[in-house]
Amino acid sequence: MKRLWPYLLAVLVAMGGVSCSDEEVLPNQREKLVSYLESSHAPALVEESQADEEAQQAFYTVSGSTVYRYIENYYAPGRDQKKEVGASLKVTITFRAYVFTYSNITDSTFPYYSNDPLLREAYLELGLADGAWSFEPLTLDMRGDILKGLRFALLGCREGDEVEAYMTYNMAYGDKNFSTIPLESPVAWFFTVEAVE
User: Which pLDDT band holds residue 19 (cuts at 50, 70, 90)?
Assistant: First the structure.
């Protein structure tokens, strides 16, 4: 039987019963996300612990070990006086959600989902969102059923924050097929915190 084990394992892998690459997906996505944030992102970011606050150096934070967040207006005067998103509050956001390909998201990168009114016409021209979803700000109950990575990204944000959140597949849709999003895809959510209540 010991001699048959390698052959049985090879058959299981070929049939999809065992995936050797699954163990590599998460560390690979983490590594690529950090590389993107520190070298390709504009502006280039450093990890929060390395940020020079006096120089107002742009930085990212890490939550849940695989959600990377950049708050564009972190150093804005009066930001610390605004209401903070907590675990039992409601938050209203305007957002754009993208399948992330480790490259800069530009105006020509089309989100898979958004409630940004600036994109409404583009969605309608493509025959999308013709009444399928709202372009009004979205109010989320932080105690409710929301994307795990989005919850991590929202916690600690403040009203008026402009945020970019990059998350590995396990913080997004996991290893399940979800609409047009490829299996085990990292995603990026760009959002503005409109209100916290």
Answer: very low
Q: What is the dihedral of CA 137, 139, 142, 144, to 10 degrees?
A: -120
Per DSSP, 181 falls in state B
Rounded to whole angstroms, the Cα distance separating 171 from 168 reads 6
3-state class of 163 per DSSP? Answer: strand
pLDDT average, residue stretch 23-41 = 95
Give the integer Cα–Cα distance in Å for 169 and 158.
Answer: 25
C-alpha–C-alpha distance, residues 23 and 139, integer Å: 36
d(CA 127, CA 123): 6
> Which token pair is 190?
């760009």
Q: For the chain, list the domains and their CATH numbers.
A: 57-196 (3.10.50.40)
Q: What is the mean pLDDT of residues 181-189?
A: 94
Instruction: Show Cβ contacts of residue 77 under 8 Å, excluding neighbours closer than 6 positions.
Output: none
CA angle 97, 156, 82 (to 5 degrees): 105
pTM for the whole thing?
0.85
